[in-house]
Amino acid sequence: MRLVVDLNKCQGYAQCAFLAPDVFAMHGEESLVYNPRAEEEQRERLARAVAACPVQAITADGLDGAGDGAASGREASDGR
C-alpha cells in the first residue's frame, strides 16, 4: 500500500498519528513523518486515519480494494 501526505495541506492535527501510530508520527509539534509503504495489516487503521484527516491531506493507493475489510471495520466500531 502506498501513502502520500500533502505536507502543504497538513496542519499537524495528528489524528493520523493517533489512529495509525505504526505508520504516522509527529516530529516536534507540527512536523509529520510517515512510512509511505505501509504494511497490509495496517489497512483498517490507515483507512480510519485517511478518513479522520480534517484537511484531507492523506491519500492511500490500495485502500479501495479493502471491500469487506472496511465494512467489517465499521461493524466493529458500531458495536463499541
Automatic annotation (TrEMBL):
The keyword Iron-sulfur applies. The keyword Methyltransferase does not apply. Its cofactor is [3Fe-4S] cluster. Residues 61-80 are annotated as: Disordered. One of its GO terms (molecular function) is 3 iron, 4 sulfur cluster binding. It comes from the Bacteria. Keywords: 3Fe-4S, Electron transport, Iron, Iron-sulfur, Metal-binding, Transport. InterPro entries: 3Fe4S_ferredoxin (IPR001080), Fe-S_cluster_ET (IPR051269). It holds the Pfam family Fer4_13. PANTHER family: FERREDOXIN (PTHR36923). Ferredoxins are iron-sulfur proteins that transfer electrons in a wide variety of metabolic reactions. This is Ferredoxin.
